[in-house]
Specification:
This protein has 252 residues and is mostly helical. The chain has helices at residues 6-34, 37-40, 49-56, 60-73, 89-95, 105-114, 118-127, 138-160, 167-173, 186-194, 207-220, and strands at residues 77-79, 84-86, 176-180, 199-204, 226-230. It has two domains: 7-97, Arc Repressor Mutant, subunit A; 161-251, 3-Layer(aba) Sandwich (Rossmann fold). The protein contains eleven helices and five strands. It starts with 5 loop residues before the first helix and ends in a 22-residue tail after the last strand.
């Protein structure tokens, strides 16, 4: 066995331990999101573990441990004098407010869901076989939409489209749009709401995402001008499109 440089080894182990903490912290953030703990603290009022447990219908012991770990990570604010916890405005924007462009829990759901693919990837390294996007765990698709949707809402219509020469004017007057790689349809629906004279076609080769996109369009009241179909990026149907955005997520 080769003799390591002790300083370099300690530095490497320290980095790995830090990355381990980030990984475990991601699971804790996902718990806070799914259990409604962050949203229950979104108003910024100080609260005890007992009060938060009652407010969310959860067990106090688990809530206390969760709050303590969140405070240690800097995601929740702790007041030692009163033994109470709260969310600052910034923490609430990042962790509790789904319409905030800084809202981050979806990214952790996406990341942790991606880890479900490790067994499949082990085999892929041995065989050279690929893995389709559609083969990921459901958390990947849900987390992806949840993470990118706030960014779309904040930038797509107000900033990205106006920055493209002539595109906004064409959409306003009436265009035929193919949103390729639309996922659950967040970007497609937003465009349809903003540009009522245009027709939109969303394509993705993950069937469950397309089903969710259709439901989103129906809830938003734009299903008459939006059509979603399962199709690959190189094989989506139709011709004569005026605008073909491919995977808006790459803009973020």
């Amino acid at each position: 066995m080769r003799e390591p440089n002790r300083e370099k080894l300690n530095a490497l182990v320290g980095k790995l331990v830090g990355d381990l903490g980030i990984s475990l912290g991601g699971a804790s953030i996902l718990l806070g999101d799914r259990l409604g703990l962050y949203k229950a603290m979104a108003d910024g009022a100080v609260i005890t573990p007992s009060e938060l447990a009652k407010k969310t219908g959860l067990h106090e012991r688990y809530v206390r441990e969760w709050l303590s770990s969140q405070a240690a990570g800097g995601y929740v604010t702790y007041d030692p004098a009163s033994d109470q916890f709260s969310l600052t405005e910034e923490q609430a924007m990042a962790l509790a407010q789904e319409d905030s462009p800084a809202y981050i829990p979806g990214a952790f759901e996406l990341a942790l869901g991606s880890l479900q693919a490790v067994p499949r990837l082990v085999e892929a390294f041995k065989t050279g076989a690929g893995m389709g996007w559609n083969e990921h765990h459901s958390d990947v698709f849900h987390g992806c939409e949840k993470f990118f949707r706030p960014g779309y809402a904040a930038n797509l219509v107000s900033g990205w489209i106006p920055s493209l020469d002539g595109v906004k004017e064409k959409l306003e007057s009436g265009a035929k749009v193919a949103d390729v790689g639309c996922g659950k349809g967040a970007s497609t629906v937003l465009m349809a709401q903003a540009f009522p004279k245009s027709q939109f076609f969303g394509f993705d080769y993950h069937g469950e995402s397309i089903e969710a996109a259709r439901e989103s369009a129906k809830k938003a009241g734009v299903s008459g001008r939006v059509k979603f179909e399962v199709a690959k990026a190189k094989e989506f149907p139709g011709t004569g499109y005026d605008f073909v955005p491919v995977n808006w997520a790459s803009v973020l």
